[in-house]
Design brief:
By secondary structure, the chain is of the alpha+beta class. Helix content is 18%, strand content 36%. It folds into two domains: 2-101, Oxidized Rhodanese, domain 1; 121-294, Beta Barrel (Lipocalin), CATH 2.40.128. The protein has helices at residues 6-15, 26-31, 47-54, 73-83, 95-101, 180-191; strands at residues 2-3, 19-22, 38-39, 61-65, 88-92, 121-123, 130-136, 141-155, 161-168, 203-213, 223-231, 234-247, 250-260, 285-294.
Length: 295
């Protein structure tokens, strides 16, 4: 595997004796790429299979490239092709952006995928969002889901996201108990006065006070969320970190957090309220994993 300069690449394109491979996702390839280039995405699990089908002759001269010099898509793809036995692999590290800046001709729609939010107000999409829970006692654990009913996120004049998310407590499900009768007992118990008193408090809410960006890397915990959480009419402050990125104009946030249920007067089996529980001890912490999509 070798690298290739912009000057040399211009000569190669004129000769038309190399296959140019854009290894970015299809939407980026369609938006902006080098003339006569082909596309297989290095981020697809089927990259190797697609490469072998697209270029069956391993003696073919190849030029692979990604977006720019900063990122390594081209280098990664080149290394994979080299390991497969392709003998003439050249990596153009400058990528599409470097080629464009050097005055090279490009083709495509010029409409790159949107990575910013243009709307000032976003509505949560319940069908694309979820909230999973996990609770445990000293003997075992239980897992399930609860539906996100609705929500809005709004940018204030300082461009800070605020809003509210409502959870339908009547929708609590369990996913680890196979027996319908036993599962029904658990769900009835969770809905009773021992736990969440769903009849009197059918919803729980998270009022989002601010969403602050703490990192430019979307693959890390890049946002800090400050909120007020209301369960059983008790409202307490809560702060957690989340993953956030924009996809096709929608804000997608994901992550997990832990709530101490005893702080919201969910007392059953808690050693904060009862003595000598023995095997009936239930841990105070409830773990949540979430995905919220708003657009």
């Amino acid at each position: 595997m070798e690298t290739i300069t912009t000057k040399k690449l211009k000569e190669v394109i004129k000769k038309k004796d190399h296959v140019l491979l854009n290894v970015l996702p299809e939407e980026y390839y369609k938006a902006l790429t080098l003339p006569a280039s082909k596309n297989i995405c290095i981020y697809e699990t089927s990259f190797i299979k697609q490469a072998q089908e697209l270029v069956p002759d391993k003696e073919t001269k190849l030029v692979v490239f990604g977006m720019d010099k900063k990122h390594s898509a081209g280098g990664k793809a080149g290394a994979v092709l080299d390991s497969l036995g392709y003998t003439h692999v050249h990596v153009y590290k400058e990528g599409v952006e470097g080629w464009k800046k050097a005055g090279g001709k490009t083709v495509g729609t010029k409409k790159l995928p949107r990575n910013t939010l243009k709307k000032k107000s976003l509505k949560v999409i319940p069908t694309e969002s979820y909230l999973e829970w996990e609770a445990s006692n000293i003997l075992n654990k239980h897992v399930g889901k609860v539906s996100i009913a609705s929500g809005t996120l709004t940018k204030d004049p300082k461009n800070i996201l605020k809003g509210e998310i409502t959870v339908d407590m009547k929708s609590i499900t369990n996913e680890d108990i196979a027996d319908k009768t036993i599962r029904g007992y658990l769900l009835d118990h969770l809905s009773s006065t021992d736990f969440f008193e769903v009849k009197n408090y059918p919803t729980a809410k998270m009022q989002i006070l601010s969403v602050k960006k703490i990192s430019d890397l979307a693959s890390s915990l890049n946002y800090q969320v400050k909120a007020l959480v209301t369960i059983k009419a008790i409202t307490l402050p809560f702060t957690f970190k989340a993953y956030g990125h924009v996809d096709s104009g929608k804000l997608v946030t994901q992550g997990n957090f832990v709530l101490d249920r005893s702080k919201w007067d969910v007392q059953y089996g808690s050693s904060r309220f009862f003595e000598a529980l023995g095997k009936h001890l239930v841990h105070d912490e409830i773990r949540f994993r979430f995905k919220v999509v708003a657009g």
